[in-house]
Design goal:
Largest sheet: 3 strands, antiparallel
Order of helices and strands: HEEE
Number of strands: 3
Oligomer: single chain
Helix content: 40-55%
Distance between the termini: 120 Å
Length: 141
């Protein structure tokens, strides 16, 4: 008799576990695009560092990302001038508050952690290495 009274209890517990487990799976699946975007933002930051390293070695920005190390799949890049460049990527989610659409990055860095949804471009700036001035001989007048 005790087992027949326990059946509704076990059914209720099984239902609670299934619904709760489904919620956890749904929550995890909803976070997949956000996690992919976090990895993409990290890749952009790594490319930013690789660009500065390239400039330190070659005294200029590279003509393409093929010249720097790192995973640049799906990224676009172009130079703006001798020190500024743009890196662009497509994000699945937005980390911006709903009332914010534009953002700026500090000079020398790319703040891809804060991004909108869709195709986003970030302007970065490298610092050209200090070059030793050339000393010219002085001729007496």
């Amino acid at each position: 008799m005790a087992t027949s009274n326990m059946k509704p209890y076990y059914l209720a517990m099984a239902l609670i576990i299934m619904v709760g487990g489904g919620a956890v799976v749904a929550e995890t699946q909803l976070n997949i695009p956000a996690r992919a975007d976090e990895a993409l933002a990290l890749r952009l930051d790594n490319i930013n560092v690789a660009l500065q390293t390239y400039v330190n070695d070659h005294d200029q920005l590279p003509t393409s990302l093929d010249r720097v190390s790192g995973d640049h799949t799906g990224l676009s890049y172009h130079t703006v001038n001798a020190t500024d460049f743009q890196l662009c990527a497509t994000f699945a989610t937005s980390t911006l508050p709903s009332n914010q659409s534009a953002h700026s990055s500090p000079i020398g860095s790319i703040n891809a952690v804060e991004h909108g949804r869709g195709y986003q471009c970030f302007t970065g700036r490298v610092y050209l290495p200090y070059s030793t001035p050339t000393i010219l001989p002085v001729h007496p007048l």
